[in-house]
C-alpha cells in the first residue's frame, strides 16, 4: 500500500488529476478516522470530509520528501491539527438541531419574550438590506442560497438538484455570502 501511495504521490506532483483522485480515495479512511478522533460532528460530516480532501490536496503540493518525513505521517499531522483547530473556532448551533430523541428542535425550547419597538425597527432594516442583497445575486447564487438557508438542503443535495459538483456549490455559496456581506455591512 505504501508503494502505491508513493507512486500516486509522484504522479500527483506532476499534476495527474486521475492520480490525485485515486490518492484521495486511498486516504479517505485516514480522513474519516481523523474526523472521528479529533472533531466528530455528525451535522457537519460532509463539510468536514470535504475539508479533509482539501487538506490532502494541499499536502500533495506542500510535501517535501527531503525533510525526512513520510507522506502519510505528514498528511496525518495536517489532518489532526486541522480538526483540532476546529475546536478553537467559534461554534454555532442551528436552532433546528434536534434534541430529546429527535422529537423536538432547539428552537422549541426557547421562550419568546418578544421584540421591543427598537428591535423591530432594526430587524426590519436588516430584512430590507438582506432582500436588497438577494436581489443583487446572480440567479444561480440566489438558487443556491435559498436552497441551503431557506429550504435547508445540504450542499450535496443542491449539487444533485442543479447537476453541478459539490465544490461548485460550495464556491457559489461562498461567493454569494461575500456579496451579501458587502451589501449588508454598508
Automatic annotation (TrEMBL):
RNA polymerase sigma-70 region domain sequence ranges: 23-75, 134-181
Alphabetical keyword list: DNA-binding, Sigma factor, Transcription, Transcription regulation
Alphabetized InterPro entries for the sequence: RNA_pol_sigma-70_dom, RNA_pol_sigma70, RNA_pol_sigma70_r2, RNA_pol_sigma70_r4, RNA_pol_sigma_r2, RNA_pol_sigma_r3/r4-like
Any single Pfam family the record assigns to this protein: Sigma70_r2
GO function term, MF aspect, one: sigma factor activity
CDD domains (UniProt xref): Sigma70_r4
Keyword 4Fe-4S: no
Gene3D superfamilies documented for this protein: 1.20.120.1810, 1.20.140.160
GO biological process, one term: DNA-templated transcription initiation
NCBIfam families from the UniProt entry: sigma70-ECF
Protein name: RNA polymerase sporulation-specific sigma factor
Lineage: Bacteria, Bacillati, Bacillota, Tissierellia, Tissierellales
Amino acid at each position: 500500500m505504501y508503494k502505491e501511495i508513493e507512486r500516486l504521490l509522484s504522479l500527483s506532483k506532476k499534476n495527474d488529476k486521475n492520480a490525485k483522485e485515486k490518492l484521495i480515495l486511498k486516504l479517505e479512511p485516514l480522513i474519516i478516522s481523523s474526523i472521528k478522533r479529533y472533531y466528530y460532528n455528525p451535522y457537519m460530516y460532509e463539510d468536514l470530509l470535504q475539508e479533509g480532501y482539501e487538506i490532502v490536496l494541499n499536502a500533495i503540493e506542500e510535501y517535501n520528501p527531503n525533510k525526512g518525513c513520510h507522506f502519510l505521517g505528514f498528511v496525518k499531522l495536517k489532518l489532526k491539527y486541522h480538526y483540532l483547530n476546529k475546536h478553537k473556532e467559534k461554534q454555532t448551533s442551528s436552532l433546528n438541531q434536534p434534541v430529546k430523541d429527535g422529537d423536538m428542535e432547539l428552537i422549541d425550547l426557547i421562550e419568546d419574550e418578544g421584540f421591543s419597538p427598537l428591535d423591530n425597527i432594526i430587524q426590519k432594516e436588516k430584512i430590507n438590506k438582506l432582500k436588497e442583497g438577494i436581489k443583487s445575486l446572480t440567479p444561480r447564487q440566489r438558487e443556491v442560497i435559498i436552497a441551503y438557508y431557506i429550504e435547508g438542503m445540504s450542499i450535496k443535495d443542491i449539487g444533485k438538484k442543479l447537476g453541478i459538483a459539490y465544490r461548485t456549490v460550495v464556491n457559489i455559496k461562498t461567493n454569494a455570502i461575500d456579496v451579501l456581506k458587502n451589501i449588508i455591512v454598508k
